[in-house]
Design brief:
It is found in: Cell membrane. Pfam families: Polysacc_deac_1 (PF01522). The protein has 253 residues and is α/β, with parallel strands linked by helices. It is globular. It has one domain: Glycoside hydrolase/deacetylase (TIM Barrel). The strands form 4 sheets. Strands 5, 6, 7, 11, 12 and 13 form a 6-stranded parallel β-sheet that branches. Strands 1-4-10-9 form a 4-stranded mixed β-sheet, covered by helices on one side. Strands 2-3 form a two-stranded antiparallel ribbon. Helix content is 33%, strand content 19%. The protein contains 7 helices and 14 strands.
């Protein structure tokens, strides 16, 4: 059993000049997972969607695919909905070329948990994704963007990198459609080399109003809309295998 230590939480606001915190050696010689806070490739925008699977997944997927784009869905196991109850939506996203990542099981603040508890939060959603679509994710987004050295330590053991963001649409804090669209317009006009954007799949306005605007605005500015793995030049999954057979005794939250 790993020893649970107390570390200072690092938030998404603490972005390094390189856009990442590389794999490092932590306390007592433990290895810490890499943390990515921005894309690497010039001209790429990675649109990501947290907190699903939820009711608007297919709408988001269809909007992206219609524009010749792909996004990244960071799924919970049991947050707004039980992932097994929306297994067909998970399959839909995967079948349409979107990247699937972990957002942990119950959307808990990982910096408040012990090592064993963090492992469990990560394992339960990994197990669900293995059962539903046969993949083991290579990337995890910590809920609220909060992590510490213990979270990075456990992520390294589970062979996953952390993904934060460098642009927030504001939909998780109740921003209006006008406000979120203005944020996308502003970042497009600033013309950064690349963008790693966080949105939330659970927002109806994001799915039906802000996302179409963001897609058209970013494409008009010359950006290519890709997955996180593509914008980093890394594999999306540790393992790709055969999905499991649904079992009512185990496929439940």
């Amino acid at each position: 059993m790993l020893v649970s230590l107390v570390f200072t939480a690092v938030t998404a606001a603490c972005v390094s000049a390189t856009g990442m915190e590389p794999q490092a050696v932590g306390p007592e010689g433990t290895l810490l997972a890499t943390v990515y806070k921005s894309c690497k490739n010039k001209g790429d925008v990675a649109l990501t969607f947290d907190d699903g699977p939820y009711l608007y997944l297919e709408d988001i997927s269809n909007a992206l695919v219609a524009a010749g784009a792909h996004g990244t869905f960071f799924f919970n196991g049991n947050n707004f909905r039980c992932i097994y109850n929306l297994a067909e939506s998970v399959k839909y996203a995967h079948a349409h070329g979107h990247m699937i990542g972990s957002h942990t099981y119950a959307h808990k603040d990982l910096t408040t948990l012990t090592s064993d508890q963090i492992h469990n939060e990560m394992w339960l959603v990994e197990q669900a994704l293995q059962r539903i679509i046969g993949v083991t994710p290579a990337f995890m987004r910590p809920p609220y963007g909060l992590y510490n050295d213990l979270v990075r330590q456990v992520s390294h053991v589970r062979n996953q990198s952390l993904v934060i963001w460098d642009f927030d649409s504001g939909d998780s804090t109740g921003s209006s459609v006008t406000s979120s669209e203005a944020l996308y317009a502003a970042v497009a006009s600033k013309n950064p080399s690349n963008v790693l954007a966080v949105n939330h799949e659970t927002s109806e306005t994001t799915a039906h109003q802000v996302l179409p605007y963001a897609i058209s605005t970013l494409k008009a500015a010359g950006y290519k809309l890709v997955t996180v793995a593509e914008c980093l030049g890394l594999p999306a999954y540790q393992h790709v295998g055969t999905p499991g057979t649904p079992d009512p005794n185990t496929w439940k939250c």
